[in-house]
Amino acid sequence: MSESSLSGQKRPRCGENTVPATAMAPPMTTTNQGCPIPFSDASDSLKGEHSRGPVLLQDQILREKLTHFDHERIPERVVHARGAGAHGYFESYADHSDLTSAQFLSQPRLRTPVFVRFSTVQGSRGSSDTVRDIRGFATKFYTTQGNWDLVGNNAPVFFIQDAIKFPDFVHALKGNPQNDIPTGSSAHDSFWDFVSLSPESTHAVFWAMSDRGIPKSFAHMQGFGVHTFRFINQAGVSVFVKFHWTPVQTGVCSLLWDEALKVAGADPDFHRRSLFENIEAGAYPEFELGVQVFNEDLIRVPASGPDDSVLIDLLDPTKLVPTELVPIRPLGKMVLDKNPDNFFAETEQVAFCTAHRIPGIDFSNDPLLQGRLFSYTDTQITRLGGPNFHEIPINRPKCATVNNFQRDGFHRQVVDKGQANYEPNSLGGPLKHEAPQLDEQMSTTAPAVTPPMVTPMETAPSVLTGEMPAFVKNLLVRAKPRGFQDHYSQPRLFYQSFSIPEKKHLESAFTFELSKVTRPWIVQRAVDKMLAPVDLALAEAVAAQLGIKVTPPTAAVPTLTPQASLSQMSYLPKRPVGRKIGILVRDGSRASQVKDIQTFASKNQITALTLGPKRITYTADDDSEIVTDASEEALPSFMFDAVCIPACQSPVQDSVTRIFIKQAFKHLKPIVILQDPTETLQALGLPADEGILIAPEFSAVSDAFIKALCQHRVWSRQPKAEEIDA
Ligand code: HDE
Fold first, then answer.
1. 133 vs 170: CA distance, rounded Å
2. pLDDT tens-place string over residues 393-436
3. 142 annotated to a ligand binding site
4. Which of 392, 449, 661, 683 lies deepest, with the highest CB count within 10 Å?
5. Residue 285 domain-assigned?
6. Residue 100 has pLDDT above 50, yes or no
7. Is any atom of ligand 1 closer than 6 Å to the C-beta of 376?
8. In terms of residue numbers, what domain contains 639?
9. Is 370 touching ligand 1 by the criterion CB < 6 Å?
């Protein structure tokens, strides 16, 4: 029965609010078979003996509704269960056909639709956003040549070198099998047991314990393909590439640990909300995609430093190549400008797979990547209930055709027509395959057919025979190449490239995590085997806080030249777009200043919210009303990037306001005070500093305020901030 045949008019579907509720004809609910359900039947089940009798099994409306509800959930992802997604587009900067035949990179300004899903790794679907963890950064490009998935992380290195270790790593990382504790955290025995027994994990653990493990938002993260991939051009020339996403405008910024802990309690959806709200507000997250390009004869790249005998093996996913050594070639930019319409249909059902590639892009022999090529499709078969998940709208290619003889299976949507479900065939083609002589014979008798479109997909020949002497080349081995054995020079490089605050944060992170580990031998091993070989002073500082002694390492570790590109300080925001400021108001606050701050905010794509000790309407100095967006308790200062305090005759008295300002100071945030600061600063025991901007009018500090926001934090305040109780 069609929708129109019931009433002669197309009815809106339930929940499809295209016109204001008042003007809309009420939508008629139906069963899943399209049969209308009168309103009277929608809220009471069918009972015998008037309204007091038993509910009847024959009530098909009730049974259908409960059955569907009972099956609303699908298994969550085994890793990366918690995530948030967005639609957008990728725009190529130029013609990159010298590198790749991928058409979406063949013209300047060519746009390709994308869907991105950001995620945490460890926690379950309902865990908190701001936990310390690596973040997933997976992008589906709906190109004209089919879908290409770039399934990356916000760290350029991974914890293991071979796919065969992945289930062990994930089991150790996830919650205790007895009680599923903890969710969303690596601060527990089994994670540190595994990584301290696996030296190859050291580098990725350093990334997770660094500020990258607690990003400020998804729009403030870099993304990395991690593995080495290949680009192949029309002439068949293949090069190795490493993919990089860079948030050029918003910068790479992180939370402070104290903030991350508090935010997790106050708003577990912090990152998800920020992505959603910024897109709704038009402050679209943007990322530049670029590649480091390596000639294929360069299997190992010399690292720079006093010991230049160190070689970086391009097949080792625990190593990065600093961008100072091999610069990034920018390819284009991605803009995320549309929120999903339905979380389940899009963000939950999207199925990424590293094997989804298009012509011009190919894999390398990285043993971790090779395992991933299998694992992603395999997992979707359980998670999405069969092999037809590519037909779910969010996964469907947007190019003209999907054309093959794969058939049937659970949840098949396409109604395949015709008798030919095999190839070669002469009932519709293709004819030409293994039997050319038969083709010729048939072509005189069979009807003319147009063969289905076949997209050529080149595969680069493998040149990676590695270090093996010729006589063993053909042996099958279970072994790692020799170049994979150096596990410490790169985490040392990473740590030594940090600014002082970043080093301090890393030390605190290791101390926090290891103080949660209950078995003393695991703590000792982590300090001796992971920290000490990387940096003895760091190991000693952490050990001192854990009350243990370090055993110095015996083997020497090469020291490489520090690289600024590894410090977040090299990626400060260019614009304050997407930042959030709190304007603290109370009775008597100066209305004109509140307005000035709001105008400034909307001009700069900043969200400005008015906050009061209570969520009530206050009376301004000119008797106008100031409506508050929230109370300072409901949205504490750690939910904001900066605070503005307009002039007011009455002093700051409420304890909630005092805590708000003190926490903003402690978390190194810019504070704008638009009157004599004595009452705010001295009364709260806060010293003046370069991040406290004082002026009689907002216009006098607006430029300095933008600069302060683009520094992300008032870094020079850190030593004083540590002394503040808040
Ligand atoms: Fe994944 N990974 N992974 N992974 N991964 C999954 O696929 C796997 C690895 C990454 O938003 C799963 O659909 C193996 C590296 C992201 O939907 C699963 C190995 C990197 C996402 C899987 C790795 C990633 C996943 C779980 C080692 C960074 C979320 C559900 C060989 C380059 C994608 C799913 C999304 C998800 C397997 C290692 C990134 C089980 C076997 C390295 C961003 O298939």
1. 13
2. 999 999 977 889 999 999 999 999 999 999 888 888 776 655 44
3. no
4. 661
5. yes
6. yes
7. yes
8. 580-723
9. no
